[in-house]
Design goal:
Layout (H helix, E strand, L loop, with lengths): L1 E5 L14 H12 L6 E3 L2 E8 L2 E8 L6 H12 L6 E7 L7 E5 L7 H10 L5 E6 L9 H5 L8 H13 L1 H5 L3 H13 L3
Parallel strand pairs: 1-4, 1-5, 5-7
Antiparallel strand pairs: 2-3, 3-4, 6-7
Helix pairs in contact: 1-5, 2-3, 5-7
């Protein structure tokens, strides 16, 4: 079993924010693979289902970004899922929009959701799908940038990225990260 976590902030006010791209990715996974409706549990929204033959729990913490780790730790403990079978989908400033990188472990690079997960799991040995949102160019503008909505021009590429992530998730769950990234980026390059 895998725990796939999308990071974001709860509520309509934040729904289209760049910071919420993790929620968008997990929603696309749920839709593509026919997961049942999300239900409130573990201080988050949870849905259990399958991505092809693999059992998966989807989680969208509802604790606000800075406390995401509380929800992730409780869900992981309940389902007895070790950190190496947790993948977190999150926004990444240092990657161009509509691109991705995958990594396991490492620092939080100032991302408060990852910082919270590190603290509550007591480890950094979980997977991350880093969804590029680009950088505003000046670190003093970062806070407002991540909490602002994707522009109308950015929305199609963002939705296409989330759909491609969902389509190729079986590679990710088979721990074929390079194949996952390759296929997602091929989709982006071909406008799929």
């Amino acid at each position: 079993m895998w725990l796939l976590v999308g990071l974001g902030n709860p509520g309509e006010k934040y729904a289209a924010n760049r910071h919420n791209i993790g929620f968008v990715a997990v929603d696309h996974l749920a839709d593509r693979y026919g997961f049942p409706p999300f239900r409130a549990k573990f201080q988050g929204l949870v849905s259990e289902g399958r991505v092809e033959d693999t059992k998966v729990v989807l989680l969208k913490p509802q604790t606000f970004m800075n406390e995401s780790g509380r929800s992730v730790a409780v869900a992981a403990k309940f389902f007895k899922i070790p950190p190496e079978r947790i993948i977190v989908f999150h926004d990444e400033l240092d990657i161009p929009p509509a691109t991705i990188k995958v990594k396991k472990g490492g620092g939080h690079a100032g991302h408060n959701g990852l910082r919270s997960i590190d603290a509550h799991l007591g480890t950094r040995d979980y997977g991350r799908v880093r969804l590029g949102i680009g950088h505003p160019g000046d670190k003093t503008r970062v806070h407002g940038y991540v909490l602002s909505d994707f522009s109308k021009a950015e929305q199609p590429a963002t939705m296409a990225l989330a759909e491609s992530v969902a389509r190729h998730a079986p590679f990710l769950l088979a721990t074929r990260d390079s194949d996952f990234v390759k296929h997602v980026m091929e989709d982006q390059n071909h406008g799929l």
